[in-house]
Design goal:
Blueprint (H helix, E strand, L loop, with lengths): L2 E6 L12 H12 L3 E6 L11 H12 L3 E5 L2 H10 L4 E5 L2 H4 L6 H20 L2 E4 L2 H4 L5 H6 L1 E2 L14 H8 L7 E5 L9 H11 L7 E5 L7 H7 L2 E4 L8 H8 L4 E4 L4 H5 L6 E3 L3 H14 L6 H4 L4 H27 L1
Parallel strand pairs: 1-2, 1-3, 3-4, 4-5, 5-6, 7-8, 7-9, 9-10, 10-11
Helix pairs in contact: 1-15, 2-3, 3-5, 8-10, 9-13
């Protein structure tokens, strides 16, 4: 039986049950495939603090004889994983760990830039690399790393994210039953999400769609997110950069239309999908996309588009990466004995 230690700095807690929910879901899916996965949370509330983390990990890896160490996120998390030594390391990059920050304070940009350096160093020493989109793969500095990485977006829980009646969802949430609603993910307060651009776009669209309102998806328990998605008329994404935004794929799984800038792998999922629009990064273009999506009056039929991202299938692809890494290690050991 394969034994894996998952190292992550984002894991749901009682106080913050949204952070790292996709990591938790992937771990659960891998366990269902028979993989023994232990989780170590690094940094933050409830996690192991960075000073001394590498030494603690070395002791744990030796004591429990792990086959693999999987760093979920680049940056310091991935750096700690490759400094442990011992079992092969898999690194999953998610977005800002390779993109850095194009906006924000000088201190925030410097901190993000240091994280990118850690990510690139980790790529040199990791046995396997996973990225969420082709765009992220292209952020890797070495051509060899770009060639050998695996593009595996986060899986979607299609049992949880499923279509339901809009009025029914609004009634359960206590929303007004009438009037169009644009939903924007507000889980992060950082400048990357460009909430200012979303507000400007909705303000312009409101001139043509009276009563149009914008709601932020913020502080919502994970199991209630599908209810909010289904209650909305469309989901709007205006981020400066992304890896593979979960909100887009989750909205499509609920057949909710998406209006977005061309960021991450969004184009892959919404191009040609009914009532979804890819727009320029400016208010007038986004407002036009909102109006067009609303004028169609229908749902997106996006569930069929994201069907390949069902959790079991994605976990199987991650398991393939594990097995490939272990196969390479066995081959290296064989040649070392000769």
């Amino acid at each position: 039986m394969m034994r894996v230690l998952c190292l992550t700095h984002a894991w749901p807690t009682a106080e913050k049950d949204v952070a790292g929910i996709f990591v938790q879901r992937q771990v659960a899916s891998l366990r269902e495939l028979g993989v023994t996965v232990d989780v170590r949370v690094a940094g933050g509330a409830g996690g192991s603090r960075w000073p001394g983390l590498v030494a603690c990990l070395r002791e744990e890896v030796t004591r429990r004889s792990y086959d693999l160490l999987h760093a979920q996120y680049g940056g310091r998390t991935a750096l700690a994983a490759v400094l442990v030594g011992g079992p092969p390391v898999i690194v999953s990059y998610c977005g800002s760990d390779l993109n850095g920050l194009g906006t924000g304070t000088p201190r925030e940009r410097a901190h993000a830039g240091a994280g990118v350096l850690c990510s690139q160093f980790a790529a040199l020493h990791a046995r396997g690399l996973i990225v969420k989109s082709e765009g992220l793969a292209n952020r890797l500095w070495r051509a060899w790393d770009r060639k050998r990485c695996h593009i595996i977006p986060n899986g979607i829980d299609l049992e949880l994210f499923r279509p339901m009646g809009r009025r029914q969802a609004r009634a359960r949430l206590g929303w007004e039953l009438d009037g169009a609603v644009v939903l924007v993910s507000g889980q992060s307060d950082g400048p990357v999400k460009r909430l200012d651009l979303a507000e400007a776009a909705v303000a312009q669209a409101r001139n043509r769609v009276p009563g149009l309102s914008l709601r932020l998806l913020r502080g919502v328990p994970p199991r209630e997110v599908p209810l909010h998605l289904n209650a909305a008329d469309l989901v709007l994404l205006t981020s400066q950069h992304e890896g593979s935004p979960n909100i887009v794929k989750e909205a499509l799984a609920c057949n909710v239309p998406v209006v977005s800038v061309d960021v991450g792998d969004v184009k892959r999922w919404i191009s040609g999908t009914p009532h979804c629009w890819l727009c320029d990064r400016e208010p007038a273009s986004l407002a036009e996309g909102i109006v067009r999506a609303l004028s169609g009056g229908g749902r997106s039929e996006g569930r069929a588009v994201v069907a390949p991202l069902a959790l079991p299938g994605v976990a199987a692809r991650v398991l393939d990466v594990y097995e490939e890494a272990l196969s390479v290690r066995r081959t290296e050991r064989l040649f070392a004995r000769r």
